[in-house]
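As a warm-up, study this chain.
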Amino acid sequence: PIPCVPWQSQTSGHEAPDDYEESSGVLIFKRGEERKDISIKIIPDDKVEGDENFFVTLSTPQGPNDPILGKNCVTEITIIDISFPGCFMFEHQTITIPETKPCVILVKRRNGADDTCCVNYTTIDGTAQAGVDYEQTSGTLSFKSQETEKEIVINLVNTRSSDRNATFTVMLSTPTNGSTIDTNANTCLVVISNDPEYARAAKIAQDAISKHLNFISLGSSTWAGQFAEAMTIGGDLDQGSEATTGDYVMHFFSFMWKVLFAIIPPTDIC
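Now compare it with the structure written out below.
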């Protein structure tokens, strides 16, 4: 008979292995052979689970001269975990957004994307206040295996303010499953810019009021002033513009009414 020894792989627990193929066999030693190799297939995956161990055990040998087992009949195999769950960070540390649009912030996962990982986020007041300038927002982003980007959407409140910018911060925290956060990119400063359309409209209205303020005055102080205005043909003296043909036409048709209203006592007298 030829010397042989049975062997078998074993897990440390009672569950079936999912990191290697459970194996067994018999090693047969020919005359003069002193060494045999055992091959066990390791199953790769993208789970983050740390290093794991299993064992290979030799059983009672058979053969001539009654061979026996030595003291090293059990060996421990360590499967080294080389998964990289990744590092979370904001794409930009500062963004500027008009108050008329929702704020969209991109979170990236770098240096690995193995297994499912999560990271929390929350908003923090600055000069902008939650409920006044933006909607307070917090939650958890869940990244599937090999997923590298997620968006955070924050609704802004259009305050129709044309005289200031306001800021708030979004912060990442509590990564899971072995993932980390880049401490140099764990916050994003959001600058809420003025509504450009509203600011433009407000400026136009302000200029128009200033330009025509003399036309919306509530009265004059003397009869002489009222009759002088009634006799005056249009034209903007402040701007240096002369009366146009239209001004002369309107003056001709409205002259009687101008004189009639000039007879009314001035506001200072009333």
